[in-house]
Amino acid sequence: MMNVESVLSALVFCAAGTGLFFYFINRFVLTQRDYPIKAPLLLLAFALLYGGGLWWGWRVGFAPSFWGALVLLAVMMVSEGRRLSLRRRMAGTPPVWQENVAEHLRKPFTTTTLALRHYEIRLPAWRGPRLRIAHVTDFHVNGMLPDAHYRLVMERVQQAEPDLIFYTGDFLSDETSYAERLPVLLGAVRGKLGSFAVLGNHDYWSDPARVTAVLKQAGVQTLENGFQALEAGGARFMLWGCEDPWGPTRWSAPPPADGLVLALSHTGDNIYRLARAGAHAVFSGHYHAGQWRLPGVGPLLVPSRFGRRFDHGHFVVQGAHLFVSAGIGITRIPFRIYCRPDVLIVDIFPAS
Ligand SMILES: [Fe+2]
């Protein structure tokens, strides 16, 4: 006969174990440098905590450890509530226009179904004409995706006629030999005022000097942890690069800039410091929007110390606009589930 006490205990331990994985172990391991057994280790930890929780809970029933698991579960539920509340408070405006974004339950594999999301923001710091930015990130050129996918991406970028193209890192997936493909894949598409990039963790784990050299050959200027002053319609603005925590040098805030400041940071985890330093808008990738998402649940794994807080989309954090793209490539696992690759087009207008 079914023992209610054992069932309840098994469910509580299982939920607490699963939460422990997503809130602590997954978050900690995913932000570490890649090593060969990282993925199997994560799977093993998940299996142990999920399955082990079920087994142990069934076995011990309402033993003292059950109440410990219940408290842990309550703490994680409060933490999830806080995450949802923060996201609601920091939610930016939805896209004014988007293309190919609807997920179909019967079509879970979305590896190359490119979405376009077009945002408009008004910033008091900007006094020039409309500034159009195309944000493309996480190419992960590694032979897993056909060249046609990258060509389509760059075609859509070109059609948008951007003033600036921002690439926010992970051009490669550790395999340096693919670096030579980059100029071919980027083609002749350029922003009217230039194309700019920062490198990502995978670029640093391959050959950053080579990636920088091939990007230069392709007409893309890398910012590293530096800055670049530009002008549009007589109005000056500043670009900042932030490659923390992977670059050889640590980022420090550039001198105070007069006017608009736009920052490129591979990870959105830098948003708070960039906002405090005076960035008006920050463009990031790195999270791949989870790469695997479940309808109604969202991403399962996000390599961020903020967990799923900034997984994807537009946020306003301490007055700074954060745009997080799902990226266009894939890494390790060769597919996306309910998670479309995307390109963001962001138009910046003066406040009045
Ligand atoms: Fe990436």
What report would you give on this structure?
By secondary structure, this protein is α/β, with parallel strands linked by helices. The protein folds into two domains: 86 residues, no CATH class; 256 residues, Purple Acid Phosphatase, chain A, domain 2. It is built from eight helices and 15 strands. The strands form three sheets. It has a seven-stranded mixed sheet with strand order 1-2-15-3-4-5-6. A six-stranded mixed sheet has the order 7-8-9-10-14-13, covered by helices on one side. The protein has a two-stranded antiparallel ribbon with strand order 11-12. Helix 4 links the parallel strand 3 and strand 4. The longest helix is centred in the first third of the chain and has 27 residues. It is globular and about 75 Å long. The N and C termini lie far apart (71 Å). The mean pLDDT is 92. The site of fe (ii) ion (FE2) has 9 residues, from loops.
